[in-house]
Amino acid sequence: MKHKPTSTKETSVTEIVLPIGTCPLDIFTFQCWLKTTHGGHIYQYVSEPTQTGFSVQINSLGHIECAINTTLLRIEAISTLGGLNDDHWHLLSICYQYNEIKCYIDSEITHIQQQHIPLITDGASYSDFLLSNKHIDAIFDGSIIDTTLLNRCLSDAEIFDYYQYPYQQKVITENNLHIYQKRHSDHGETVNFIKPKRQEVMLIIFNDTEYDFKKLTPSSNLFLKQLPNIIPANERCAYIIESSNECWPHFIYQVDYIASECSDIKISVDIFKSLTPYRSTVHINAVDELESDCLINQSTETRLSAEIRISENTVITQAKHFMHFLNEVRSYIRAENIITNGRYYSEQQFLVSTGKQMINYQLACQLFNRRLQKRPLAIIKCTSTHDVKVVYKAAIDYNLPISVRSGGHDHEGESGQTNTIVIDLSNMDSIEIDPISGIAAIGPGTTIATLTTALAKKGLMIPHSTTATVGISGFIMGGGWGPWCRKYGMCCESLLQAEIVLGIGETQVISAANKPELLWALKGGGGLSYGIVTRFFVQTFPLPPNLLKFELEWNCYQPETQTLIETTPTMRLLERWEETINADNTSCLLGTNLKIQTKSLASTMAEACSKQGAELTQEPNRIGTCITDFDPNSIKHNCVMYGHWEGNLASLEYFINSQFSEVGLKPDRIRIEPLGGLTQAYGEQLMESWNRESFQCLQQSQAALQAWGQNLQMKGVKWQDLSQPAPHRVTSRLADQTGLKTGHINLLESLTSTQTLEGNRQLGLFTYVTLNAIAGDFYRKISESQQKQSAFPYKEKAYIIQYQAWWNAELEEKAQLHDNSVYTRINRALDWIDACRDADIPNTSGAFISYKDKTIPTSVYFAQHYAQLQRIKGAYCQDPLNHFRSRKSII
């Protein structure tokens, strides 16, 4: 191409004289480097003998437009993406072959729209290519370099190679760098030659490993400054890579390093520095034993700034930290109390494990909820507060996460998380009782069975759980609902002091006089969040002289077939039970719950069809199942009311008659335990059935069950599977102070579902809801100041609604492993739990943290107290990095 300057007084432009050729444009590649903020014509070529030509330009939106005249066709194309006039350097490549155009920007193909226009008159479009002085507005406004036109079609690889290494390619034409002058310039010039700019990259390298990295790649004379021969271990250093003038419009810098003491540890750094800032990149590649990351801080036309971090793989780092941790705690903790899956040898960096050790580890990992399987790094059984401090501080010093376990009954398994150090408190089960004050100092690993038995020997008690194997720690910090709730409130209301290990490893005894807000948080504000409690000081109360427990059952199951014997509508029972717990004349009812079994919708539909003699239509109900002519006033479910009664047998029988039998709700079965616990075996007579179902009981013979059911009093029958660990899932919400009202219908709909299949019980799969009474004398009569003494947020609620699904509780089921028919139904049961969690039930809200469902937001569990609990954790726990954490802890 030649350029002829044309000058005027006001403007100066550069006019392009067309290249004239003799070769027809049957096949070609056009390339150039360009930079512009406006656009205009870039290049034109005309073959006079054949009257064929080629023209390319950039329009005002940065789209590429090109036209090719052949002997028969005019082919026009425009790129669908614009923005090429962004004032950055770009490589434009256009290939033509077989009447098709391909367009590339910076070696990447870009989509274009093409149209083929037949030429009617020879040479009719030839003049369209002629650009002369009259086309001043169309002249390219920007910079162009290395314009080439080849009589062949370059491949994708060739175009990419040229883009990557332009300074290593041989320029085919003799074109130089030409700048077309901007319009309205002050004076005219012919052509400016731009000197290539040097480019540089600044790398800040954080080498967090223990390795010195030695350079393998030889230095290149294309760079004035390069990375050093050694990148030192555990240091942060800044380096400059600067190109020579020959590296234009970008450069590639590649270098490899090897660890000086380990030939298997290698890294490589790949830098692509472009005059187009957003195309500049830095990549670091490392072997699996390492982890690497790169952050670009700044990218301009001439300078790229980035940070590179090289670290050991987190798995390897954790393994090393874990070995250091074990070496430290072995100085303080007995070997039999350190449970791992093998013996670690830090110097040789290997693990040895015996079969016995692996079995012991697997047993120690097991959670009460067998649905969940976790693999902690280690389980450390502590026997004292000093042990807890040693283990906790060592774990934090070596950057290892912790879990804390006492009874291990967390429904979501948060007390024994995978890849954590489990601080096991089960051996810290001391019980000391002050004979004067009646205050019991209780170790966090003490179970309810052990504790209640010890207290009963002294004629004392606390508001305990119905489950014997629950540990006091999680129970009391979660609130602590149980069979004494109506008279003494949640167990947390009786907590007076607590010994706690805070975030810096310091031990304090908190009370109303020392950090009362922190004590308030421990009373129902959830476990682990605030520290590790190593002792609870709980106020006891005297056991009454007469104490009974009872069960009232309606709509019993036929023992042999497990079909429902329907007698009483569930709605009437539910309404009557609500009236009973809200009544002011039922003080002797110390605590109660109502268990309602689910009913298969299929069986409900079949019964309705049988009665009506017609096929019924189905409509969706409010929880996503299908319901058919659902009558909430007549539907019948198996219902059992459990209770704790202060008084003699006559007074209990009067209560049953007056509250139920005389109003048309006579129980089908009545079971009473007259001793109720005023013995040394109190802990063996806890009310496990309040929240569980027994598959062993279901499997007994019809005759034995019928004979037992005819007796008014139970005679010490205890089904062992009621307290056994088993897979399960629960979710919860709470009923308003005045009860569900219109929500009764929705609750009963949730219990009549297509997800709960007929025959589940025969396979040991139990799905039901338990309604646990909160309403009673305690919360009805406490003063406003007493209301503020605990973080339990649901003092004004009537009861807790707990949906539950349990299976494989009995040994026969467990022995079948995965060859168990129950697994054909589990997913449906879990879907039922999800549907109940999401169901729209009027006059309900919240959720109870002890009945944990990880899909419910943490703030919902703690309701109006959540923000205050967050503030207390920040103010008192000395745990700024939140080491005391689990999925549902306060954050």
UniProtKB/TrEMBL annotation:
SUPFAM superfamilies: Concanavalin A-like lectins/glucanases, FAD-binding/transporter-associated domain-like. Residues 372-543 form the FAD-binding PCMH-type domain. GO terms for molecular function: FAD binding; oxidoreductase activity. It holds the Pfam family Laminin_G_3. Keywords: FAD, Flavoprotein, Oxidoreductase. Signal peptide: none annotated. Its cofactor is FAD. InterPro entries: BBE, ConA-like_dom_sf, FAD-bd_PCMH, FAD-bd_PCMH-like_sf, FAD-bd_PCMH_sub1, FAD-bd_PCMH_sub2, FAD-linked_Oxidoreductase, Oxid_FAD_bind_N. Belongs to the oxygen-dependent FAD-linked oxidoreductase family. This is FAD linked oxidase domain protein. The lineage of its organism: Bacteria, Pseudomonadati, Pseudomonadota, Gammaproteobacteria, Alteromonadales.
